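Thread: Neurexin/syndecan/glycophorin C domain-containing protein, structure

OP (GT): Posting the sequence first so everyone is looking at the same thing. Length is 90 residues per the record. Can we get the structure tokens written out before standup tomorrow? I want them in the notebook alongside the other entries.
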Amino acid sequence: MADYTLLVQDPTAMSTSPGVDHAVIGGVVAVIVFILLCLLIVLGRYLIRHKGTYLTHEAKGSDDAPDADTAIINAEGGHSGADDKKEYFI
């Protein structure tokens, strides 16, 4: 005699598919979006702080001088070549 089994489906039961878990995919996508957002904030702060401007140590009042020699002679900062220490590298 053949043994037959009867399959009964419950329409109120939730179906679970063994393949794709949507909660895991949603969590991974949320983590990736969070990491990209953090990287965008860090990159934005870096670009704002390093705009390409830099601090120069020019003598005050050298903007009005007609040439570089006059600016050095009339400098208020005392940056004349005679007062500097000389360094020798061997």
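GT: Both are above now. Quick notes for whoever picks this up: Residues 22-49 form the longest helix (28 residues). The mean pLDDT is 76.
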